[in-house]
């Protein structure tokens, strides 16, 4: 197998565009010519048939076949035979519980980290690629056996990261405040806030921010920092040292 290859997308749909429209060129360059079929994991949404239809239509338009894992009688075997894996968005708790229920955590980790097959996630699919789902925005509508996720990278991500609206009257916590609360707990890893329209490309020990909007990085005990597309985040893969300003 080759080195790990991940494309971790903040969101599936960007305002004004269709499903995966804003990142379809990134997907094509990420999957390349070698991959012929993608294994789709639709567990984050309740209507898996409809979700698979949407994903299949998109991937076929990009030149890839798509198999949905929920149509397989043996999900573990489907992962073992897959050429590439895509986990879509929806509710992160529902998704992670289904991954545990179907004994897929270890299998996906092995395929991606040992065998080197490409892994794509969007939204909830990006959340589960990280250490844990502690920094998801979703409601815990079901109870997974653990908040620990696939651990394909040694930090957490907050997809759909939202900046505070200075004109707002809503007095609930901002996203930044919630992440700060997470970092009040001991030994919590970095959190990368990915705004809609951005994604993180991981190739081996190199991580690069791609897309159009940028990201905000939160390190425990440090002030958050702002980063443009093109930023090299490789240091997050090896340790938690902050970028020099």
In total, how many beta strands? 11
Supply the CATH superfamily name. Class I glutamine amidotransferase (GATase) domain
What spatial order of strands do you see in the largest sheet? Answer: 3-2-4-5-1-8-9
Counting structural domains, the number is 1
Family: Belongs to the peptidase S51 family.
Organism: Sinosuthora webbiana
Catalytic activity: Dipeptidase E catalyzes the hydrolysis of dipeptides Asp-|-Xaa. It does not act on peptides with N-terminal Glu, Asn or Gln, nor does it cleave isoaspartyl peptides
GO molecular function, one term: serine-type peptidase activity
Topology summary:
Blueprint: E1 5-9, H1 24-31, E2 37-41, H2 48-61, E3 65-68, H3 75-81, E4 85-87, H4 92-101, H5 105-114, E5 119-122, H6 124-127, E6 156-158, H7 175-183, E7 191-194, E8 198-203, E9 206-211, E10 215-218, E11 225-227, H8 235-238
Parallel strand pairs: 1-5, 2-3, 2-4, 4-5, 6-7
Antiparallel strand pairs: 1-8, 7-10, 8-9, 10-11
Describe this structure in words.
With 245 residues, the chain is of the alpha/beta class. The protein contains eight helices and eleven strands. It has a single domain, classed as Class I glutamine amidotransferase (GATase) domain (Rossmann fold, 3-Layer(aba) Sandwich). It has helices at 24-31, 48-61, 75-81, 92-101, 105-114, 124-127, 175-183, 235-238; strands at residues 5-9, 37-41, 65-68, 85-87, 119-122, 156-158, 191-194, 198-203, 206-211, 215-218, 225-227. Strand 2, helix 2 and strand 3 (65-68) form a beta-alpha-beta unit. It is globular. The protein starts with a strand and ends in a 7-residue tail after the last helix.
């Amino acid at each position: 197998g080759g080195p790990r290859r991940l494309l971790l997308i903040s969101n599936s749909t960007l305002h004004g565009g269709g499903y995966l429209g804003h990142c379809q060129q990134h997907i094509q360059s990420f999957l390349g010519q070698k991959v012929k079929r993608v294994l789709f994991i639709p567990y984050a949404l309740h209507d898996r048939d409809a979700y698979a239809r949407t994903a299949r239509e998109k991937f076929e338009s990009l030149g890839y076949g798509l198999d949905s894992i929920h149509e397989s009688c043996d999900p573990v075997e489907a992962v073992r035979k897959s050429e590439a894996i895509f986990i879509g968005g929806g509710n992160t708790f529902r998704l992670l519980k289904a991954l545990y229920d179907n004994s897929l955590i270890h299998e996906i980790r092995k395929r991606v980290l040992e065998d080197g097959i490409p892994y794509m996630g969007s939204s909830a699919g990006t959340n589960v690629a990280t250490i844990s789902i502690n920094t998801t925005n979703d409601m815990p509508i079901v109870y997974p056996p653990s908040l620990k996720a696939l651990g394909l990278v040694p930090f957490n991500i907050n997809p759909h990261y939202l900046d505070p609206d200075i004109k707002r009257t809503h007095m609930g916590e901002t996203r930044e405040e919630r992440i700060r609360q997470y970092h009040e707990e001991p030994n919590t890893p970095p959190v990368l806030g990915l705004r809609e329209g951005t994604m993180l490309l991981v190739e081996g020990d190199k991580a690069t921010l791609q897309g159009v909007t940028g990201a905000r990085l939160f390190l425990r005990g440090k002030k958050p920092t702002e980063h443009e597309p093109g930023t090299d985040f490789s240091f997050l893969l090896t340790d938690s040292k902050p970028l020099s300003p």
